[in-house]
Design a protein that fits this description.
single chain; Rossmann fold; 2 domains; six-stranded mixed β-sheet; four-stranded antiparallel β-sheet; 9 helices; 25% strand
Length: 280
């Protein structure tokens, strides 16, 4: 089916989606709509189904039950090229198999937008340079991608997804291999990117505090079928995260800043919020 999307308000909707891994039910009859302008962190313990969910939301994996819609149209009914123009997926790992410049690697994600003979236009090169610039990678444009460190390659992979200019981004562990400085830079870049009308991001992440700082919403998976979705500070709470991760967490405050930290092993319940400034 050919479908002309409304680029102003992309909406991704899971309709009673059930995900399984062998005999395990990772997610059970999950229904939710993700709207433009939102930045979602998908969190949960290892094996909870974060990668499986993102792949399903991208249309690359079939749900055990239920279905996913983009702008009210089932993903199965989208034309492949049009779907690639509407959503972009950054997988958890994508090893480079050939030598090419960083600029050329980033421009590979322009393929869904190419016309005619498929040759890149100046607009495609400009989009690639803009994506590299947003992530502070302009100085690497001429480098061979095979010469990059793991962290540099991760940032290039994110630049490639941004270069695709799809209004919906699905990012699986985009902060892996990055030091804290670059993690924050990448999240700030995603925040800047979503300020353009019609754009939204879903990314998986293990750092709950970075998620609380930069995401607008959170989807917390327990790996046993349950999911908790809503504004990030309503979901990534000491009570919910302690239950899902199986370890007691407490919330500390220092002025306007908050952080979830592990409680001492002897504590079996999450104590009330502590004010770090008051202890000084």
């Amino acid at each position: 089916m050919m479908h002309t999307a409304n680029q102003a308000e992309p909406a991704l909707s899971a309709q009673r989606v059930t995900l399984r891994a062998g005999s395990r039910t990772l997610l059970d009859a999950f229904t939710h709509t993700f709207y433009a302008g939102e930045i979602w962190c998908v969190a949960g313990p290892n094996g909870a189904g974060k990668t499986t969910l993102l792949s399903t939301l991208a249309g690359l994996r079939q749900a055990f039950a239920g279905h996913v819609e983009l702008d009210g149209i089932r993903l199965a009914d989208w034309h492949a090229q049009q779907l690639a123009q509407r959503r972009a997926l950054m997988p958890q790992s994508a090893p480079d198999t050939f030598s090419a410049s960083v600029l050329d690697i980033v421009m590979l994600n322009r393929f869904p937008l190419l016309t005619g003979w498929g040759w890149e236009r100046e607009a495609d090169r400009a989009a690639a340079r803009a994506a590299l610039d947003l992530l502070g990678l302009t100085g690497l444009a001429a480098r061979d991608v095979l010469s990059l460190s793991g962290g540099e390659r991760q940032r290039v992979a994110l630049a490639a997804v941004l270069c695709q200019q799809a209004p919906l981004l699905l990012l699986d562990e985009p902060l892996s291999h990055l030091d804290l400085h670059h993690q924050i830079e990448c999240l700030e870049a995603l925040g800047e990117w979503t300020r353009e009308p019609g754009r939204s991001v879903l990314f998986s992440c293990h750092d709950l505090n970075l998620a609380r700082r930069f995401a607008t919403h959170a989807l917390l998976l327990d790996g046993n079928g349950a999911a908790y979705a809503g504004p990030v500070r309503d979901v990534l709470t000491p009570a919910l995260t302690s239950r899902v991760f199986g370890y007691p967490l407490i919330l500390i405050r220092d002025g306007d800043h908050e952080a979830l930290i592990p409680a001492p092993r002897s504590r079996h319940e999450s104590p009330p919020v502590h004010d770090a400034a008051a202890r000084r």
